[in-house]
Amino acid sequence: MLNNESLFIRTKDEIEKLWSNNKKLSDFVIWPKNLVLKEKNINKINVTEKLSIWKSSGNDQIDKIHNLISDLSQVVYWESGYSENEVNQEFLSKYGFFELIGPTGHFLTSEMGLWVNFLDKNSYYPPHNHEAEELYFVVSGEAKFESEDEQSQILKSKDTRFHKSYQAHSITTFDEKILSFVIWKNKFENVSKMVDPNSL
Ligand SMILES: [Fe+2]
Questions:
Q1: Rounded distance, CA 131 to CA 124, Å?
Q2: Which protein residues have a CB closer than 5 Å to ligand 1 (ion)?
Q3: What is the pTM of this model?
């Protein structure tokens, strides 16, 4: 039995249920069969604690998912994704993600990537892009999403937004932080890169 196995399995099962009830998610990528939980180190960063103390008091399925993810915060491998050459120190202190499901995730699969993303309030995640097509799904909180050649939009819990391959996008938070799933279905090897800050 791996450390915290039952918490990982309960979280995965609850997200799988969400998939079966949400056409935006299931149309974007089919939920992989036979996900294997792998031993992976714990890595804590600045936002680890911020997510672990952020609990939802609601009783809906999405609140349950929020709280499972919040509980997982202390036992997963958090990353910042960008170097200090690419983004400023303030951003790095307010942003982080962990690969729950994917080619190098806690659950292994080559069929999709699902990262849990946290962005603190009053933050700006500058324009960036990547080869993979991407779907954002907001678990809780809210943020303004902007992308190349599209209307900006405030996204809240259970909202989704699609980004095409190499379409630049940015995220701005105001009075609320945001917890979201970032889902990729291919081209995992080409990581996200910052682009011209004035591209949106
Ligand atoms: Fe993205």
A1: 22
A2: 134
A3: 0.96
